[in-house]
Amino acid sequence: MGIVIAVISGKGGVGKTTATANLGLGIGLNEKKCVVVDFDIGQRNLDMILGLENRVVYDMVQVMDEEATVQQALIKSKVSENLFFLAASQSKDKSVLKSEKVQKLINSLKKDFDFVILDAPAGIESGYEHTIEFADAAIVVVNPEVSSIRDADRAIGILDSKSDKVKNGEEVAKYLIINRIVADMVESGEMLKSDDILEILNIKLLGKVPEDKGVIDASNQGKPVILDKKSIAGQAYIRIAGRLCGQQVDMKDVEISDSGLFKRIVGMFR
Amino acid sequence: MFGFDFFRRKKSAAVAKDRLTIAIMSDRDRTNAYPFMDAMKAEIIEVVKKYVGVKGVEITKEVDGELEALSIDVELDGNTKVP
Lengths: 270, 83
Hints:
The structure holds two protein chains of two kinds.
Chain A: E1 3-8, H1 16-29, E2 34-38, H2 46-50, H3 60-64, H4 70-73, E3 75-76, E4 83-86, H5 99-112, E5 115-119, H6 126-133, E6 137-142, H7 146-162, H8 164-167, E7 173-181, H9 183-187, H10 194-201, E8 204-210, H11 214-221, H12 232-244, H13 258-268
Parallel strand pairs in A: 1-5, 1-6, 2-4, 2-5, 6-7, 7-8
Antiparallel strand pairs in A: 3-4
Chain B: H1 2-7, H2 12-32, H3 37-49, E1 54-64, E2 67-76
């Protein structure tokens, strides 16, 4: 049985879908079977980030309504044999999601995959609640910025009260990815430090991703940034995917700029 | 100006941390307000009424770090004397 992980954020535009795509691919490249499911009904985007938009025939709502089988709707990644993708419905709206149907879909995916990753919609409405309902764990994505962090706290609050696991007296594991860190700004005190964010949200750190222009370039082409070996964001996703697959990967400090690092090294010899 | 610059020393990340801590604390408080609060209030009024006149009861949740407390304020009815 695989693990079900919801990728959540509260606020939109913080990099949730980018994180989902890159972690899915990173897990696949680690030889684990992974499926990524777009739960953002009506605003399908994961297909674009993965470069699979032309291959979508059936979506997850059609699978839930038994208009198509899971096998018919699963799309294999062009890059990894181990990564599959299930598209969101673009024509319907989130009111089509029903708990029993969601549970049935997730249970069938869990049988075939090591990782089932659900890309939640932004906001904390019903679409979000259905995404977290049957999750074993959640990855919270934030930017080091006040509105993202506040919205993430609300999303975590709903996770802690409305997920099936919590209702059964268990705990949902929660991990944080801090995305779009600008080292210079952290050093000069103009951007929140990861330690402060972890303290405010009271959550464990999964990884830090630095700001990287390569992310937009990657999404332009539909090739997740993790494939770009030179990209600093891509390298961060490689580390995070390794951690998810159980490897011990040191937390590289992306909050120190190259010049800051140089100052520290010089400082050591003084 | 020199003086202006001097007072601007508090970095914006520190300001952000302070503001977020307060905003999130009050968000959590609002969402964690106990659903049984009204029923509990009514019962407290009943109990206190046996001994003294009561005008109203106010219950507030206070959070101080790890410590959570309920503070219960009972407003007495001025017409009855407390023995």
